[in-house]
Amino acid sequence: MSAGNGCKCDDEAELRRGPWTLEEDTLLIHYIACHGEGRWNLLARCSGLKRTGKSCRLRWLNYLKPDVKRGNLTPEEQILILELHSKWGNRWSRIAQHLPGRTDNEIKNYWRTRVQKQARQLKIDANSTMFRDAVRCLWMPRLMEKMGPSLSPAANLNPNSCLLDHGALQLSTPPPPPPPPAAGLLSPDLVQLVAYDNSRSGYELLGSENCSPCISSDSMAVSQLPSMPEFSASTPDAFGSCILQVPHNLLPGGHHINNAYGLHGLGAPAAPMSASGGSSVGSPAADYSVMGNSFVENFADCLWSMDELWRVRGLHDWEN
DNA sequence: AATACTTGCAACCGCAACCTT
DNA sequence: AAAGGTTGCGGTTGCAAGTAT
């Protein structure tokens, strides 16, 4: 460990930083093959690498180690991450222990880039109960669908444990406190909904058995929505969700809420609604008049369910 | 085609816990 | 027991690649 043990002890000022080169990787792999893992500072000094022990350790564990799995996380792994994070929070290394071949860094990146993005789109704090509800009600069922019939035991979750379920509501903890103004309140004139592409040819807001209390049991085609200037939709994300913004004044029967989520469908992401749109639609005005009645009718059902949900949860007073 | 913007991920940093002497 | 060194964790940053305008 000392300067006199035969190691190449270079001036610390020459330590390299930044991306690793192929030569450095080769050197590190070769050294570990000969001497094994651990003792990272010694490794750094004696391998000829002008890196800190910390940097060597990180490169090995996160990238070079043979059992590190590359490629996208499977739906099973994603479910596991969501579930374990809801249990343990940001304990990345602990979570990683349950996903063989995946590193804490990878899981942390997944959470930050995918999951927190979802929270931002929903305008919900990623650590809030409300967001955990959304995860359980929206993503987990979708991921399970992607997994098909081969549900792994670890991911054998009961979607009906969704906190949005009426039964669960009655039995479980008191309603969560109203979210802070920034988390959930929209402009007084708009309602936001999360919708999923359900058919690749359009968008559909669907009833879901998993989250039946929070949505209408009817489904409704909204593939023509983009042709209506009153509505806007965000670009669908990696999970296929997009945010619809709908003017309050289009809602019949005085039903109005400030935030809604829980509209659940199936299928892969597709082009933004504004890009492909409905198949046989004419001018925006004509489209709306043609399909308007049935759409609004079902939409109202859906919103009523959401409205009821918030009332049950004691959140009604965060309406304007 | 060029530029601006967004996204995903590898790598770094600070800190705390653990280990060795 | 204490001090110094090492390791591991979680948060953050920087950059290359991809996408939108």
UniProtKB/TrEMBL annotation:
It is found in: Nucleus. Pfam families: Myb_DNA-binding. Keywords: DNA-binding, Nucleus, Repeat, Transcription, Transcription regulation. Residues 12-64, 65-115 form the Myb-like domain. It comes from the Eukaryota. GO terms for cellular component: nucleus. GO terms for molecular function: DNA-binding transcription factor activity; sequence-specific DNA binding. PROSITE patterns: HTH_MYB (PS51294), MYB_LIKE (PS50090). InterPro entries: EOBI/EOBII-like_plant, Homeodomain-like_sf, Myb_dom, SANT/Myb. Residues 12-64, 65-119 form the HTH myb-type domain. This is Uncharacterized protein. It comes from Colocasia esculenta (Wild taro).
